[in-house]
Amino acid sequence: MKSFIVSLAVLMCLSSVTMSSVAMAQDKNKADPKAAWKVEEKKLNENAPPPSNWQKTMTEAAKKKGSPSGTLKVWGIGPDSPYGRVYLWTGASWSEPSPTARLSRISRTTQGGAWGIGDNKRIFMTTNGVSWIEPNPTAKLNQISGNLYAAWGIGDSYRIFLSINGGKSWFEPTPQAKMKQISAGNFDNVWGVTPDGHVLKYSMSNTWEEPSPTARLNQISAMAVTGGE
After folding, report:
1. Domain-embedded: residue 112
2. In a domain? residue 23
3. Apex 69 CA angle, 67 and 75, nearest 5
4. Cα(47)–Cα(40) distance, rounded to whole angstroms?
5. I need a surface site. Which of 103, 164, 166, 195 has the fewest CB within 10 A?
């Protein structure tokens, strides 16, 4: 009986310590938005599907029908600092579809829409420029490229993120790789530039290959090679 009481007391003590630790962690995350985002990142990465599954999903998403034949959409950001007004060229003139939109980076998709990076590295997307949505308010990126369904992005510390559900969730497909810039022309034409300028191409075996080891670039732009424009 004494042994049981002692064991019960030890368990209660350990439970109290664990609950206190959880409460402290929650309070810390509430006080520090960055900490909350790191917890969210860890959760997303832990729940990330195995490569064979998400690559199939990404391939299917990237093959969705692109812009109607003959349309021309070019997106631009004005000189306002630090966040510029968003403009759209449709072949005859520049227009400002949403006078309230302000972005620091923009990337056209193969469907004619666009991804954008706004204040505090928030991620936005649009199909027409008139209305912009924020698929995941907790996600933060420095740069983004892809189509409206499968998009790649660069976060802090050159980390590479991928979304295969229109930006609702993000995970790191290759946690060991680091890039300062990325360009996704399509699911099988994704290129990146490392912090020291090496040029790498993503392989569907979930690795990055270096086609030309002597090449050095600061930026790269890839085009869609199948489907869409």
Report:
1. yes
2. no
3. 45
4. 11
5. 195
**What is the extent of the structural domain holding 157?**
50-209
Tokens coding 202: 């993503």
Burial class from Cβ neighbours inside 10 Å (0-12, 13-18, 19+) for residue 145 reads: buried
Residue 13 lies in a domain: no
Condensed to tens digits (0 to 9), the pLDDT of residues 143-173 reads 999 988 899 999 999 999 999 999 999 999 9
- Per DSSP, the residues of 71-112 read ---EEEE-S-SSSEEEEEE-SS-EE-S-TT-EESEEEE-TTS
Q: How many domains, the chain?
A: 1
Q: How far is 127 from 161, CA to CA, in rounded Å?
A: 22
β-bridge partners, 108: 114
Q: Is the pTM of this model over 0.90?
A: no
Please report which residue ranges of the chain form alpha helices under DSSP H.
2-31, 33-46, 51-62
Do 179 and 193 contact (CB within 8 A), yes or no? yes
Find out whether the peptide bond into 82 is cis, omega within 30 degrees of 0.
Answer: yes
Residue corresponding to tokens 């790649």: 152
Provide the sign of the torsion angle of the four alpha carbons 42, 47, 52, 58, taken in this order. negative
CATH number for the domain spanning 133: value is: 2.130.10.10
> What is the pLDDT of the chain when averaged over all its residues?
80
Give the span between the Cα atoms of 143 and 180, in whole angstroms. Answer: 9
d(CA 73, CA 114): 10
Q: How many residues does the chain have?
A: 229
Within a domain: residue 166?
A: yes
